[in-house]
What we know:
This protein folds into two domains: 30-210, Beta Polymerase, domain 2, CATH 3.30.460.90; 221-336, Orthogonal Bundle (Poly(a)-polymerase, middle domain), CATH 1.10.1410. Helix content is 46%, strand content 18%. It has ten helices and nine strands. The chain has helices at 3-26, 30-55, 68-71, 127-149, 212-219, 229-242, 252-265, 276-294, 313-328, 330-336, and strands spanning 60-66, 80-87, 94-98, 104-109, 155-162, 165-172, 178-189, 195-197, 207-210. Helix 6 packs across helix 8, helix 7 (252-265) packs across helix 8 and helix 9 crosses helix 10.
Amino acid sequence: MSASAQAQQDVETLTKNLRDFSVKYVKISEADMARSKKLVQTYVESQVMEYCKQNSILPILRLEYAGSVYEGLKTEAADEVDIKVVLKTNSQEVKVEDSGIPGYVRIKAATGSNLCRYADHEGYINPERLRNRWFHSLVDQAVNAFNSSSPSSDVHLVVRYHGPAIQLDITSRRSREVLLSADLVPCIHMGGDDYFVAKGAHPGLLWKKSFSLLEKALLQHMDKDHGCRHELLRIVKTIVNREHSTLPALESYHLKTTFMHYLREKPSSHWSYPNSLGEHFIGFVGKLQAYLEGGRLPNYWLPPVNLLEGIEPRVVQNTANRLKNILCKPKKRDKVLE
């Protein structure tokens, strides 16, 4: 057999193994996805957020849904959603100022605005203060109101902090199983694509610019040509989750960012061939390995920002070596896909 024929056979075998892995470990049923969205509609929208809208001192404009469930990229279980709670503001009420840190801003409230109660003495809105004093308190009231008024409900609601977000858990009264967790994040919209969230690594008065809605727009309908993009990224996410002890440098956002870079390089016509899944698996994982090898993964929206900064270089290099083994040694790759 010629080298080219052998390579083609290897790609065909890889595609079959990836599809088998996807069916066994990755795919979420349409019924599970529908159930999760129904839970969001019934309890997050109609109960908790409706209470918040009616009782908030700050006007809530709308909810925006983002994250892997709404991008078609959730793996294993449809049990988490990300929701932005967009405040109703205008350019006369708030002003955005550059912070000097890429991706972060300061937001100043105008004199007389209700937002001033969550600001410092200069009028800069403190995202932690707004989240804790206003939003957590409000969601907590909504949850208590629901639990006390619905003692016969099949579910019980629990609210807790989850890093910079407020996490709302919808739990089964009978089994105490968490049916769905919603991360609720306060957000200020300044028009266009400028969304700023009370969420980020920098403390104090800095708000983080959010690109999650742009990412949803880019990824949600990317397989209109019946390609394998969603399936590919879900497979790689699942592999990384299963192999986390040997791929410790990688988080979901590293994978999504690399994938967005990879998408930009690949014409849309190359995603629906019979063996596209195997070919693009090699290409995508190879690109990820190259970023790790070089110690730099540029933020898709803010290229000067390196998403690998802060991770120990030895850990990054070990992860790169592990991916190289998966790429170059089919037997090791097959073992990962068992």
